[in-house]
Amino acid sequence: MSQTPNAAVALLVVDDEASVRESLARWFAEDGFTVGTADSAAQALQRMQERRWDILLLDIKMPGMDGMELQQRVAEIDPGATIIFITAHATVDTAVRALKAGAFDYVTKPVDPDHLSHIVQNAVRQRQLQRRNEQLQEQVSEFARADAIVGDSPAMRRVYDLIQTVARTDTTVMIRGESGTGKELVARAIHGNSGRRYFPIVTVTCGALAEGVLESELFGHERGAFTGAQYRRKGKLELADGGTLFLDEVGNIDTKTQMDLLRVLETKQFTRVGGNNVIHADFRVISATNRDLEKAVQEGTFREDLYYRLNVFTIFLPPLRERKGDIPVLAEHFVKRFARQRGMQPMAISPEAMDALVRYDWPGNVRELENAIERAMVLGRPPALRPEDLPFQVTGPAARPGTGTLESVEREHIIRVLEDNHWNISRSAEILDIDRATLYHKIERYGLRKPV
C-alpha cells in the first residue's frame, strides 16, 4: 500500500467478519490513517456518536441492520461522510443501488489491498477538494455578504437593510454599539457589498496602539524616522488605497492624531513619518466605537469637525440583551462552526442549557456568547450541551439578581471572566467593556492572582 501521510483522515471499518475487519484495520493503520472498527451497524452508529469519521468501509451483508440501511442512517447523521461498500455478494443490482444511494465506490471480496487503497486515496483527494471548496465559499460568504451576520430579529433586519443601502454608495459610515456586538462584521459586510470589494479592507484598532505607534501605523514611516525605524514602512492609509479603511475604536484616538487624520480625510493626501513626499490614496472610511462621542466632543477630548466628518451615516448595533430572540440562532451557529473547525459532529443544545443562555444578559454581547459556546464544546459530550458545560456566570448566581455588595458582585464577575478567558487581559477587558488599564487596576484593587 502507499505511504501517503493520512493521519488527519479517520476511517471506520464495519464488517461482522473479524478476519476481514482486522485485516482492513491493520492495512489502513499501516498506511497512516486513524482507524476504528465496528462489528455491526449498531456499533458503527455508536462509534459515530463518539467522533466524526471521514470514510466508512461498509459490508453490505451483516446480521440485523445491513449495510444499505446503515448507509441511509449515516447519511442522516453526517451527509459528508464517504461510503465505500465491500461485499462478497457482488451483483450489478446491488452495486447500482449502492452508488445511486450515494456510495463513493464498490469493491468485492476477496479484497485486493492495492486496489482498495487506490479507491480510498481517491476518496481522500475528493474530500480534500470538497473541504477546500467549502472553506473558500465560507470565506467569500463571510467577506462579501451581510447575512454572514447572524440574527433575524426586527432590529437586525433593520441593520441588514442599512448595510445594503449604504454599501452601494461611497459614503463614510460610523458603526455604534457596545463591545462585542459585531461592529467589524458589519464593516466587512459593507465593504464586501461595495464597489471596492476587489480591493482590501484594512483595519486599524486605534484603542490598542499608543500615540506614536498609531501615527506610524496610519501614515507609515521612512527609514531613520525614529529609533528602531530601520526600514521604510507603508502605513495603513497607503495600504487601503482603492479599498476601505476601517478605524475600530476610533473614539480612543489622541487629539494630535485626530487633527492629522482629519486633514487626510479632507485631502486624501499625507506624508510618512519622517518623510517629505506627498502620497495620494483613495479609500472609503468606516469607523466604529462603543464610546459616547457626543459627550467626548462636549468635553473637548474628540474634535467636533472630525466627528462630523466620520458620522455621515450611522448604524447602531443593538446589544444582545435587546435581541434575545437571536440567541438560539447564534448559539446553534457557533456550535456548528466550532464543530466544523474541530472535525466534530455538531451537538444539540439541551432545553435547560438554551434556557440559561436566553436568560443571561450577556454584558460581553455576541463575543461573550461565542466564547461561552466554545468553552461548552470543549467540556460537553454528545448528544447535547448541558447547563454545567456553560461558564458559571451564565448559569450561576451572576446570571440572575442576587445579594451582596456591588463590589463583591463585581469582583466575582471579573474573576469568572478572567478564568473563562485563561487570564487573557485584552480579551477579558473587551468582554467587560473596559480598557486594559482599568482591568489591571481592578485586579490590583481586589487582590486577584492568576492561578499558577
Automatic annotation (TrEMBL):
<protein>
    <submittedName>
        <fullName>Sigma-54-dependent Fis family transcriptional regulator</fullName>
    </submittedName>
</protein>
<dbReference type="GO" id="GO:0005737">
    <property type="term" value="C:cytoplasm"/>
</dbReference>
<keyword id="KW-0547">Nucleotide-binding</keyword>
<feature type="domain" description="Response regulatory">
    <location>
        <begin position="10"/>
        <end position="124"/>
    </location>
</feature>
<dbReference type="Pfam" id="PF00072">
    <property type="entry name" value="Response_reg"/>
</dbReference>
<dbReference type="InterPro" id="IPR001789">
    <property type="entry name" value="Sig_transdc_resp-reg_receiver"/>
</dbReference>
<keyword id="KW-0963">Cytoplasm</keyword>
<dbReference type="GO" id="GO:0006355">
    <property type="term" value="P:regulation of DNA-templated transcription"/>
</dbReference>
<dbReference type="GO" id="GO:0005524">
    <property type="term" value="F:ATP binding"/>
</dbReference>
<dbReference type="InterPro" id="IPR025662">
    <property type="entry name" value="Sigma_54_int_dom_ATP-bd_1"/>
</dbReference>
<dbReference type="InterPro" id="IPR027417">
    <property type="entry name" value="P-loop_NTPase"/>
</dbReference>
<dbReference type="Pfam" id="PF25601">
    <property type="entry name" value="AAA_lid_14"/>
</dbReference>
<feature type="modified residue" description="4-aspartylphosphate">
    <location>
        <position position="59"/>
    </location>
</feature>
<keyword id="KW-0805">Transcription regulation</keyword>
<dbReference type="Pfam" id="PF02954">
    <property type="entry name" value="HTH_8"/>
</dbReference>
<keyword id="KW-0238">DNA-binding</keyword>
<dbReference type="InterPro" id="IPR002197">
    <property type="entry name" value="HTH_Fis"/>
</dbReference>
<dbReference type="InterPro" id="IPR025944">
    <property type="entry name" value="Sigma_54_int_dom_CS"/>
</dbReference>
<dbReference type="Pfam" id="PF00158">
    <property type="entry name" value="Sigma54_activat"/>
</dbReference>
<dbReference type="InterPro" id="IPR002078">
    <property type="entry name" value="Sigma_54_int"/>
</dbReference>
<dbReference type="InterPro" id="IPR003593">
    <property type="entry name" value="AAA+_ATPase"/>
</dbReference>
<keyword id="KW-0597">Phosphoprotein</keyword>
<dbReference type="GO" id="GO:0000160">
    <property type="term" value="P:phosphorelay signal transduction system"/>
</dbReference>
<keyword id="KW-0804">Transcription</keyword>
<dbReference type="InterPro" id="IPR025943">
    <property type="entry name" value="Sigma_54_int_dom_ATP-bd_2"/>
</dbReference>
<dbReference type="InterPro" id="IPR009057">
    <property type="entry name" value="Homeodomain-like_sf"/>
</dbReference>
<dbReference type="InterPro" id="IPR011006">
    <property type="entry name" value="CheY-like_superfamily"/>
</dbReference>
<feature type="domain" description="Sigma-54 factor interaction">
    <location>
        <begin position="149"/>
        <end position="378"/>
    </location>
</feature>
<keyword id="KW-0010">Activator</keyword>
<dbReference type="GO" id="GO:0043565">
    <property type="term" value="F:sequence-specific DNA binding"/>
</dbReference>
<dbReference type="InterPro" id="IPR058031">
    <property type="entry name" value="AAA_lid_NorR"/>
</dbReference>
<keyword id="KW-0175">Coiled coil</keyword>
<keyword id="KW-0067">ATP-binding</keyword>
<feature type="coiled-coil region">
    <location>
        <begin position="119"/>
        <end position="146"/>
    </location>
</feature>
